[in-house]
Amino acid sequence: MSQPPSHRIPPPEKRRVSPNFITEVIDAELQAGRHQRIITRFPPEPNGYAHLGHAFASYLDFMTAQDYGGVCHLRMDDTNPEAETQEYADSIIRDMAWMGWDTSHLFYASDYYERLYGYAEELIQRGLAYVESVSGEEMARLRGTVDRPGTPSPYRDRSVEENLNLFRRMRAGEFKNGEHALRGKIDLASPNFKLRDPVLYRILHAEHYRTGNKWCIYPMYDFAHPISDAIEGITHSMCSLEFVDNRAIYDWLMDNLFPENETGRAPPRQYEFGRRSLEYTVVSKRKLRRLVQEKVVDGWDDPRMPTVSAQRRRGVTPESLRVFASQIGVSRTNRTVDIAIYENAVRDDLNTRAPRVMAVIHPLKVTLVNLEAERILRLPYWPQEGAGEGSSDGLVPLPTGERLKPELAVRDVPLTREIVIEREDFSANPPKGFKRLTPGGTVRLRGAGIIRCDEVITGADGEPQEVRATLLGEEAKASGVIHWVSATRGVSIELRLFDRLFTVAEPDSDVPTFDPEQMSHEDETKPLNTDFMRFVNPQSRVVTRGFVEPSITRDPAGARYQFERQGYFWRDPVDSRDNALVFNRIITLKDTWGKRTDTPDTRTDGKPKTEQKPKVKVEAAPVARPALAPEQEATFTRLRQQGVSENDASLLAREPQLAAYLGGASEAKLAELAPWVVNDLATAIREGTNRVTLEQLTELVALLAEGGISMRIAKDVLAQAQQSGEAPARIVERQGLRVVSDEGQLRTAIQGVLDANPGKVQEYRGGKKGLMGFFTGQVMRATNGQADAKAVARLLGEMLG
Q1: Residue 285 known to be catalytic
Q2: Which of 41, 75, 183, 285 is catalytic?
């Protein structure tokens, strides 16, 4: 009898996940009748936003299940109340749905707390778990070393009755954090340290985002994760390679709590695959949080971030992320992925879906002296060389989402007396081989005809301000083709030119950067490498203003375009307005980064891969500053001399409204105020809705510089001021938001944190210095983020000893 459709082993050509060592296991188990239906799970911890690693891990989990006609569960692995929030959980669910996954099978580990507790009591009753009462430092010492087996704790042989009594009192809240813990009684002589009586439950008096204060004991990952899998009937639990030692605990729990001969079904088993690192990327959640908290980026969805929500805001499609994930492959070894694989997946996807229109990023005015009346040109969305690419039916998409024959996919483009072209498309002193516009030379305007440069109007510094040209007949010859936009009918837009966030391929080479399974269970106590911050690309976001043809105003906000010769763009879904359009560059048309010396990939053990395929490494290519008119150049030079950054000075020089806002600022304060105008007030100033005066902004920035408020408070207060019209400094005073620097208050807050975490205090004093970050975070939380960070660091060092 043939198998039901959901049980069939898919042929290789029908699989979305390429055959690999895990699918070989699944095939064999289905053939042997071990499982009736394949059920996988994707279990992120909601303590940060989903990132590109999750694109790969979720693809593997969801698509493997789909290939076999099964289902994949999305489960929030929420057993750490100190780090998890509803915001993070909601963002992950939203991102997974956007990726195209079925999120209807949604579960939370926190829903199983009562059942998990029951399984813990079962282990105690069977003599397989006991309540430990030594300190964390002593527990670590008793585990032994590689050469010496562990020493039994003096509490290891407590009676079942005493263990149950203590465990129930732990749950009732009778003990402080770290005073007791529940440990599995396994094998203190095992060469696998994970089996040397692992901690299964710890006391943690902290409010959970879903269960509130109902619980003060929480299960460890190694206990909660396998049992959650078993409760849900998971058949194959896939995770990354660093969990290979944890599999022993997984199997021990399955064998003792869910034996196959008693449950009537095969318990889940864990399978580890090699982790994938991605060049020019960090996805350690601590490092991503630092980028957000220190305002290197503008939030988790900043289009430069490697989070799924950031890539969605940037304009990347879920289809391209799925293609990228499918191309990485599954293996047993860790490997670094060339970022070009990701970028090319994005380009290939957009190339077949993005109609072509014209936009000018760095405008130079051209006057067509012999054009007496405006002309309306009907230009194809898909020029001949691009029409129908990747289309099996011969139809091409429009911005509206419709599909037409290429010859019908056209839009109206006005040709007016005054147009703009790219500054780089004109040269008064052209280099050899220059095929664009030159004095006396000709060039073809895309779809409009050939023009000849007759006169160049320059400024005092000799730079061109305007080109006067004649529109010629088709019999004339042209040296090249350039794009253009009507200066009077074109739409003025802000363009955000995004690029790679880091300038080197391995910005945090000391820590794996692309951890697909582990968004989540990162050791927060380990010291954080800070060197990665020096590799942040200062040109990762360049803001400029230009023009786009007016046809785009009729299109849906979600339309993606290829701006000819510029790259792929779409409207920013957060900041763009109908009367103040903002376009994000999703990606350039080609890789703009130069090559560096080829080096072979290596495995994490330092040995060469068996396939010695050279890999191209690339370094950052400098981004050219937009050309400025003479008066703009003078403003730019003045601002740079006063300490304003190059990018901010360039934008201020090109936008008189923004520069005028700063007109009354003192030279000493200009460098401090400029970033706030460019990054926080620019949109409101352009739209005429700004409610914060220069004097008020100066007061706020002074408060920040003096240490009176934190950066987070400053940003929040500025947003409130824009809504209410109240002065930011007044909001600070009224709401009592000043930084707490009083030593007595800080000592009280710090002592409260130390009293609540005696176990961690002992661990710190025992040498675990990485816990300083934990204590700092707890103090900041206790003071609503208002504690003076420098004073906290000094006092913590003193009080911890």
Answers
A1: yes
A2: 285
Query: Per-residue DSSP letters for 392-434?
Result: SSS-EE-TTS-EE-GGG-EEEEEE-SEEEEEGGGB-SSPPTT-
The CA distance from 773 to 143, in Å, is 26
As given in the structure block, the two tokens for residue 306 are 């490697």
Rounded to whole angstroms, the Cα distance separating 653 from 227 reads 61
The helix (run of H) or strand (run of E) holding residue 652 is: helix 646-654
Task: Decide: pTM greater than 0.90.
Answer: no
d(CA 48, CA 286): 9
What three-state secondary structure class fits 501?
Answer: coil
Which runs of consecutive H residues, i.e. helices, occur in 681-769? 682-687, 694-705, 711-724, 728-734, 743-756, 758-765
Tell me the pLDDT tens digit for each residue of 715-758. 778 888 887 889 988 888 887 777 777 788 788 888 888 888 88
Closest CA to 183 of 220, 215, 145: 220
Q: For residue 369, which of 417, 331, 307 has the smallest C-alpha distance?
A: 417
Find the angle CA(363)-CA(368)-CA(374) to the nearest 5 degrees: 100
Predicted confidence (pLDDT) at residue 113 exceeds the cutoff of 80: yes
- pLDDT 10s digits, 523-582: 444 444 457 888 899 999 999 999 999 999 999 999 999 999 999 999 999 999 999 999
Do residues 150 and 188 lie in contact, with contact meaning Cβ atoms separated by under 8 Å? Answer: yes
* Alpha-carbon distances of 171 from 18, 20, 109, 174, rounded to whole Å: 46, 44, 18, 8
- The answer to whether the CB of 563 falls within 8 A of the CB of 497 is no
End-to-end CA distance of the chain: 73
Helical packing angle, 113-125 and 160-172, nearest 10°: 160
Instruction: Determine which one of 45, 84, 422, 564 is catalytic.
Output: 45
Residue 506 is which amino acid?
A: E
**Which of 275, 287, 571, 686 does the annotation list as catalytic?**
275
